[in-house]
Amino acid sequence: MSVTTRDVEATAIDATSSALHSSAAAKKTRRSGPGFFTWLFRVLGQLLLAVLFAAGILGLMIWLSGAFEAKVPTDRTMAMAVPPQIEEGEFDIVEVRRIERPQVETAVGTVRAAHEVSVASKILARVEEVNILAGQAVRKGDVLMRLDKADLEARLEQAKAGEAAAEARAAQARADFARAERLRANQAIPRDQYEAAATALKAAEADLERMRRTVKEASIIEDYALIRAPISGVIVDKLVNVGDTVTPGQPIATLYDPTRMQMVATVRESLAQRLKVGQTIPARLDALGYECQAVISEIVPEAQAESRSFQVKVTGDCPPNVYSGMFGRILIPLDHESVTVVPESAVRRVGQLDQVDVVEEDGAIRRRIVRLGRSFSEDREVLSGLVPGERVRARKTTPIAPPDRIQKIQAIAEPMPNQNQNGNPSNSAASADSVASTPESEVAP
């Protein structure tokens, strides 16, 4: 049986068609099979995780910015429910005052000793003994250090030997002169021989005096080996140790008189014109919490070119534990100023806010946020929030009830009811009733 060309072509076409159908079926099976859904779920899961992560970051940023915290409205006052049984005994009603007080400016300074001495050696020698420590009190004449004096002792002995020889020569010269005087009186010797004996006596006595001064000098130099305190005071520091070799003029210790201290302050040139020697001004030592009235002892008549300021030295009563180098201030009086103040006992500190309880004309108590400034003894400066004449509640310094019986109350922020267009309450009595119905809880007053 013969196979024609047409049969071969038909067979090839059928095979190609079968292959195409098989490939299409495989692709369709792959798209609709389990592998496609797995890939789809993986992609959707990754997208969901990315969205959740972004949402978490956004929520964290909003929380950190304080969006979920309760804010204190600026158009609301803070009212407080006060138990009537403790209101009378614990608080006083005081007025906000305006006072006149002197205005001062502070100039910083440093405590220095008015009398400070640097002790130095007068000879070249080795240190043999040190009898001082930093901070030790000494009296005038106490031996601070001992230096090696072997060569000084030898020099002194040599001077004493020379003095003895000079005394012998002087004695011989005096004897010769006495004999010459007797012979001259009897005309036994010529005049020139007599004068020679007199000259020899004068020379011998002069040489003896010179040797005596040499001995005194050697004795004084020997005493230089003992370094003594020139004043009574306190040792600041010792600068040498045993075994060191010191030279003439080399500082070996520093001491100061603790009973004569002063503060050296730097005052700018515009303020220095207000000061004069003998003027009394306040001075303060912050580290000791000490304040006193000091007297200006010196004003250095030369401005420092770098800071355009003068050095002012003040002296005053010196308390214990004051040391050279401590920080201090002087208060320079200026003009008077008018300041609104409220008692410190009327201020409550809540977080970063200062609050006071204001007593209204109808007797209602409103807690108000104020801005405070400087402290003046028992008062605080009011920068804003109160005006002179307003009444506030202040805690008494001595409670009349035991601490365990004092009840604590909570400040509750509420909007004023029935506010008009300007934000002012239209019915104070209704506001007081709403406050009285507020439940109590425990917080620090």
UniProtKB/TrEMBL annotation:
InterPro entries: Beta-barrel_RND_2, MdtA-like_BSH, RND_pump_MFP. Residues 396-445 are annotated as: Disordered. One of its GO terms (cellular component) is efflux pump complex. Residues 264-315 form the CusB-like beta-barrel domain. It comes from the Bacteria. Keywords: Coiled coil, Membrane, Transmembrane, Transmembrane helix. Gene3D superfamilies: 2.40.30.170, 2.40.420.20, 2.40.50.100, Helix hairpin bin. Residues 149-221 form a coiled coil. The chain crosses the membrane at residues 39-64. One of its GO terms (molecular function) is efflux transmembrane transporter activity. This is Efflux transporter, RND family, MFP subunit.
